[in-house]
Design brief:
This protein is an alpha/beta fold. It has one domain: Aldolase class I (TIM Barrel, Alpha-Beta Barrel), CATH 3.20.20.70. Helices cover 42% and strands 15% of the residues. The chain has 12 helices and 10 strands. The longest helix is centred in the middle third of the chain and has 14 residues. The chain is globular, with a radius of gyration of 18 Å. The chain starts with a helix and ends with a helix.
């Protein structure tokens, strides 16, 4: 992390936010996924809320979210607690994501919808961004989330089709594209967004092909970041990309017509989400 960013980190705010989240029994992807930007974001008193618990039913090798543990019951009061914290923090841009819960009949879609609705009641002007699992491409589950009218629908393809079998064996590349395509077709006013991790062994031509696939399904926003190995049990980094390579991918993506693009080593789907949205609004004017 650059010194300039370090200097902006307010330790008091980090402590206060941790205390607030613990008090309200809320999880964040920042903590559960060991995000490298956690200190910076917590220092600004912002976070990406992780609903449906902090235990995942899938076993993606890049992710440090807990697995192989007893799954929690659905917490019906969680949406209201998130809305309360959003109001207390004065958030204008709210990111709601989740673990994958293939054990639930709707994959947790109703909890996404309930959280969106709860935030809307208390903070009606907030921009709400959801980062969802694929729901096994269950149309009814997707309809449940989309009917709650998030401003941004984010679903990450994460990596190249060739690498799915080793990186995220329980997911499917084409299914993820279908989720994005369906969401845009169902409501073309919703901004669609996706993210890619680089450094897992992909080739440049594969990255370009994925970007083209995302544009083919009318994905509006794309984020590209460097994969960092979160724990020793996760898959190792195959290669660290240079900043120039990220800049090149950003230029390519912009040339393809994405409305908003972010590409740098520390970029993550939820990182600088509000800034990316503002960039998109400027582009659309």
């Amino acid at each position: 992390m650059h010194t300039s960013v370090k200097n902006k980190i307010d330790l008091t705010k980090i402590v206060e936010l941790n205390a607030l989240l613990n008090k309200n029994r809320l999880h964040t992807v920042c903590v559960s996924a060991r995000c490298p930007n956690k200190s910076e974001c917590f220092g600004k008193k912002t976070a990406a809320f992780l609903i449906l618990g902090d235990i995942c039913t899938r076993h993606c090798r890049f992710c440090s979210v807990r697995k192989n543990a007893e799954l929690p019951e659905l917490d019906i009061e969680e949406p209201a607690r998130i809305a309360s914290v959003v109001q207390e923090l004065g958030l204008e841009h709210v990111v709601i994501t989740s673990v994958t819960r293939d054990d639930l009949a709707d994959g947790g879609a109703s909890q996404f919808a309930g959280t969106i609705q709860a935030v809307r009641v208390i903070v009606p002007d907030a921009i709400i961004e959801v980062l969802t699992p694929d729901f096994q491409f269950d149309h009814q589950a997707l309809d449940t989330v989309l009917a709650a009218q998030p401003d941004i629908f984010n679903h990450n393809v994460e990596t190249m089709p060739r690498l799915y079998v080793t990186v995220r064996p329980e997911a499917d590349y084409r299914r993820s594209l279908n989720v994005l395509e369906y969401s845009k077709r169902k409501n073309n006013k919703i901004i669609t967004k996706s993210g890619l991790m680089l450094g897992l062994g992909e080739e440049e031509k594969e990255v370009v092909a994925v970007l083209q696939d995302l544009r083919q399904v009318n994905c509006d926003v794309v984020v590209l970041g460097q994969y960092f190995q979160p724990t020793k049990s996760n898959m190792p980094v195959a290669r660290y990309l240079s900043r120039e390579e990220f800049k090149n991918y950003e230029r390519l993506a912009r040339g393809m017509g994405f409305l908003s693009v972010a590409a740098s080593p520390n970029m993550r789907s939820s990182y600088l989400a509000q800034e990316l949205y503002q960039q998109l609004k400027i582009t659309k004017l």
